[in-house]
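Hi support team,

I'm opening this ticket because the web form for multi-chain structure prediction keeps timing out on my end. I have pasted the exact lines I submitted so you can reproduce it. The total is 652 residues across two entries, so I didn't expect it to be a heavy job. Is there a limit I'm missing, or should I split the entries? Thanks in advance, R.K.
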Amino acid sequence: MPGQRSRNAGVPGSRRGSLPGDPGWGTLLWRPLRLVALVYLALLGTGGLAGVWVPAAAQDAAAPVASEVFSPAPEGHIPPPELPLDFSVVDTPSDDGSSLTLRWDPDQVMQTLGVATIAALTFARRAVEETEFLPVGRARVRDGEFRDAGLESGVAYIYRIGLEDEDGLLRNTAASAPLVPQANFFRTHRTNALILVLLMFGLVVGFILAARKGIDLFIRRIAGLDAIAEAVGRATEMGRKILYIPGIISVNEPQTLASLGILGYVAKLTARYGTKLEVPNIDPLTMAAAREIVKQSYLEEGTPEAFNEDMIHYITQDQFAYAAAVNGIMVRDRPAAIFLLGWFAAESLLLSETGQSVGAIQIAGTAQVTQLPFFVAACDYTMLGEELFAASAYLSKDPLILGSIKGQDMVKAVILVAIVVGVIMVSAGVPGFADLFSAL
Amino acid sequence: MKRQIPIMLAIIASVCPVIAFFFPDRWINEWFNQRLDAWMVIIASFALLLGIVSMIQVNIHKIRRRARGWGFSIIILVTFTLMAAFGLFGGQGERADGSLYPFTWMFQFVFSPLQATMFSLLAFYVASASYRAFRVRNVEATLLLIGALIIMVGRIPLGTLIHPLVPDIAEWVMKFPNTAAQRGIIIGAALGAASMSVRVMVGIERPYMGKS
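Hello R.K., no limit was hit. The queue was backed up. Here is the completed structure from your submission:
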């Protein structure tokens, strides 16, 4: 069951009631008794004769070495006293039944054991039917929690926590009670995300349906997209090529998809005016999609003969090798217009500065906040975040796509209201509201 | 059918991870997340062959036409062939005597330094871009210059020497106006991406099949 707990008995002084370094009365009495028993068993096992042979080391009953020689335990020594650490094992909520979570109170651990917050705890686990504990991971005391993943469903597990003391001696807690991980149907901590997704989906689909009915939808002017025709016109007049860079991530990235939408529009313009277009790619899947889009655009413009597969080509999957190759193309061919639209990382400035140095008109767009300042500094027009995603609606004027943009704006309005209300609530000291938007 | 099957596949592939995000069932996770990811890797591997063919074709055409910079195309083809041969037939990693196999040697002592060189060039590009951005041309550029000066001076010991409050002002600029602007862009971009995903999911926008 979710939240099922099993608390171990590893409290200070429990069971043996001993301290580190203090073997205790029970241990002192047990050592010689165990030695005698082991010597007797060893002699029986070797067909023990009268005049009995006793190993030299075993003659000193108190010597720990003797006990090591004859101990059947693989470690060969008496285990150190239990670690007095209180911890609990609970079923991980909202998971698929493949993990259990161990929890402890960092303050209690630090006070009881006198260790630092960064001291490393080690975790060991065994299934009930197994005999040996296997190490499963480490965590710092201050973490307060450790999630053990990859467990088998329906199997009961037992845990213990270990901590190395200053002398490097590993002490373990008592074993926890067995617990079976349970699968959950729904990730309840993601309820707020589900509500937002349904709201978004409902509004977007609602506005798409409204657009179908012919309701006029307004979308504000986006300078970067208006400048595309200007850039293509400039390249046509100068008789130079256009370089289109669709980012460095594959087609599973929405920014790349948005960029490919704009590429279709640019390709139509280049097909119409007979301008050269080059699309160097870092990703082969993006290259394949870009080829189809450009080919389709040339077909739609009635100039399929002007399309050449080499226009859209692959370079390499390495980020900086790609940047070097594209910079080389810029410097050699001096394109009149450069489009940098999609997902970019550190190569953004390498590309845009080189484009600036060759005098090209540059239109950039990305949702990568860290790269936007570079584009703003080096490019003529920059589309910030959502403007890139709105491009296909803006350029195509397709009412269905415009409807989705309107739906997105409505969700943004809802979020803005929530932010304002949240600021007021938190400032007024009203608890609870901010928690509704806590990490998903 | 030629049009409908890819749209159906795209809808299924885009809806499945959303379901897996909310429902932790093992079967759903395995089929809707892990297997789709594995298939993506397999498809990408085949697409890589397509990319390699494209790269070879483009560079051979360049050499044939003696296009500008065709010498670089020879270097690309030679190094590509060498690395592929070393990787496929020459072994990888370290030999028993501690020496490196040619592929690993080329990677460590040719490829990695070249990567590092490209990355370190960024410092010079930042300098030139900053110079251009901070030129006082209008009100916005002036504000940018003032903001940049406060941040840069506030992050070095000189800032404290000028006035003890300078580092605090720099910290305030980073923490409040800068973070607020960034969050605005992030929220807008996230909603834009979500809206784009919905359009792909319902098949309105399908750039993956040549329809922009």
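A quick check on our side: The domain at 86-172 of chain A is CATH 2.60.40.10 (Immunoglobulin-like). Let us know if the file doesn't open in your viewer.
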